[in-house]
């Protein structure tokens, strides 16, 4: 996988991110905490640390805490502030922790920090990424501060309604209201002023103008309450959105922090998983989770791999089998050799890859970003028109028109609209990861719903990828069955050919001693057993030996018509037995193909195998369209040609499928848990070999798209209603804030339904 976690297709829009996502230079620093689905607006953190010189580093770069940064709006401002720095190779945003890692030469750190401060953000240099407990502590302090601001705002309302109508009490009320605004809104004002000075109109600028305007026209109690409610609503929204992020980060909790490790003296001791070296021997007892990836060296057990691969049935494990961190040993004690450090387990790489995927804006998200960029200035112009034009044309009182204009500015907050897409995309990515489906970006999550044709590789995708003995027949009148089968096994066990290995594996009994053993290239093997010569050869060799009778010919052709490879055991004067070997289909393949057809998709088999074998496998799984005898470049051309029938997906499992995976609109790689998870060519990694995950991905794509547009309609619909009420009705600033807060929370919880559906299915 590339360091962005996303492969760009040549036929797709290269501008996968909106304009404020572009940072010059290549991406080189691993992403640990990149979250796009943050709350849309600032919650007004007032915990401002004193500025410190930019000297600390993280992964060779600059690590900053930016207290006012907690959403994509602020992220976009900072990106734009740093656009002119060619030295910046990468920006990593940790919105929940309000931290930014900058990969740039040390010489440019001071100008970078100055540019961020000039954009209205205070900075604090860190020496390590913020810990979860530090973030939680900061959120608790912020909640306390905002509740205090709300109490002070209520006090201002009390002064307004119950105190005598004198100038002295008005001054007291204004002072109390100003205190509430300062307590909750200084960060909003700071960023709003910076945005206005830079010629930008964002939510901070809108709220700043609305609150200051309301205060100046005598609506100071309402101005205080609006700012306090706004900041509190943003904090609630931010915490709600974190649930989507935690669906990914929570996977880390599946790996226990410690493991039982064998010591040099043979004893066992608990050690931190992060400190365990590759090659160490770890023991896991029944009921325990595995802390690391490894290979079983001793013991037998059934392991629940559903957290990693999505498999619902435990998998039997024994010596030589791979095991993964986060899985559960359900029975039997296992000892395994650690094959990867804690930072590089399959589970850790899943989380890393999904977090990287969040940095890619999906098509709907890019549309919303572009729409919001036009929408906010348009509403500002509309509010200005209401304030200036309506008194002149409609005769409204100037203060009434100005108040309605300020209400419009509050309603215009694009929070719900902007937050509607990232939270849904992150929820969809998390839902897929929980089911053992790793999608490399929101663009592919959305693209999957457009598929009309799914091209499927045969070997290893539809089939097990390993030849297996599927039929055996001892000829009547020859040797006793057990003796003939034992002779065949004895010859087959001496050969390295895959067909011979399959025959040997499928037959029971101890092999007999073989003398004068030899192999004939392209024909088979021969040897002497108990003083008599035997051969185990293919159809052609038996034919060349003149031992093919009409009955035997019919038997062999019947097997070969089903795509099987035949081997014949013969002595010098008679044919003794026939064995048929085939690559068997997976149990899930037939159901997966049926699901694709039921969804209206056309499955196509692409294989390099011979037509007879391909047709036989196709009949077993229900595929009507088969193209056989293809080289890797031929598969690529076929996939490109199928594009005329609609969007094409490709499912493969090997290096030879890479060209066709790259040519497809969406490439699905099978069995990613057992190989390198970062397969470059695929857009979707199926963590086990279950082809049913492909239709499941398409269904999730359709559901995610539906939720995306539900959120967009909800966000715009609610605002449209309040626009009308604000201009022609009696909507107040209070109502505007509650409408905005309600719309934001509504789209957040609607997006989180994707996670709930996955838990229910699981």
Word description of this protein:
By secondary structure, this protein is α+β, with helices and mostly antiparallel strands. Among the domains are: 256-344, Calcium-transporting ATPase, cytoplasmic transduction domain A, CATH 2.70.150; 464-584, 3-Layer(aba) Sandwich (Calcium-transporting ATPase, cytoplasmic domain N). A seven-stranded mixed β-sheet has the order 15-27-26-25-16-23-24, sandwiched between helices. A six-stranded antiparallel β-sheet has the order 7-6-8-14-9-12, with no helix packed on it. Helix 21 links the parallel strand 25 and strand 26 (666-669). The chain is elongated and about 125 Å long.
CATH architecture of the domain at 464-584: 3-Layer(aba) Sandwich
Please state the overall shape, judged from the principal axes of the Cα atoms.
elongated
Supply the CATH superfamily name of the domain at 464-584.
Calcium-transporting ATPase, cytoplasmic domain N
Through-space gap between termini = 28 Å
Give the CATH class of the domain at 464-584.
Alpha Beta
Strand content: 15-25%
SS summary, helix count: 23
**Can you give the helix content as a percent range?**
40-55%
Determine Rg (CA atoms, Å): 33 Å
Work out the number of β strands: 27
At the fold tier of CATH, the topology name of the domain at 464-584 is: Calcium-transporting ATPase, cytoplasmic domain N
Uncertain ranges: 1-59, 758-762
Mean pLDDT over the residues: 77
Strand order of the largest sheet: 15-27-26-25-16-23-24
User: How does the major sheet shape up?
Assistant: 7 strands, mixed
Query: Which structural class do the helices and strands define?
Result: alpha+beta
